[in-house]
Amino acid sequence: MNFERKWMEETAAAVFERESELNKKETSLRRKKEDLNEREKQISSESQEIVDAQVRIRTLAEKLRDKEERVKNTEMHYNTELKKCREAQKKVAEMAGRLKKKNEEMKDQNLNLEKRMVECDALERQLRHWQRELEDGGTTAMSGDGSDLGFSF
């Protein structure tokens, strides 16, 4: 019986040892499972953050495309307006050149008119002078010998 008892004690010790090892493994597995669950939660949370970030990136990309389109349209409008402005400036410069030329012509015409006015004034003075001579000569001719009418040829 001693043998049986010894065997039972050894078996009990082995079972106890095996149970102790299994309990340690179970505790270890439970910790690993808890760690794994915690990692899954973290991964799930990080995955959601990534999904949210992707949504934000898509939204920002759409906004960026819209802004690029508006900038492109604005630039095209600006270039069109700039072209119109340059054409208008060219027309203004041409008109300024024509006005300058016309001004020069008018100055020349004004000078010519002033010369003609001076000539006309001189001719008027000459006519008045002759008229006075005629009148004086006519009075002299009426009162004088009558042979000369005051004309000298």
Q: N-to-C SSE series?
A: H
Largest sheet: none
Q: How many strands in all?
A: 0
The structure class reads mainly alpha
Poorly predicted tracts of residues: 146-153
Beta-strand residue fraction: under 5%
Helix share bin: over 70%
Amino- and carboxy-terminal Cα gap: 192 Å
- The global form is rod-shaped
Taking Cα atoms only, what radius of gyration do you get, to the nearest Å? 62 Å
Q: How many H/I helical runs? A: 1
Overall mean pLDDT stands at 88
Task: Characterise this structure.
This protein has one helix spanning 2-143. The protein has 153 residues and is mainly alpha-helical.
Using brief descriptors, characterize the structure shown:
93% helix; 153 residues; single chain; mainly alpha
Secondary-structure blueprint of this entry?
Elements: H1 2-143
Quick summary:
This protein has 153 residues and is mainly alpha-helical. The chain contains one helix and no strands. The chain has a domain at 1-98.
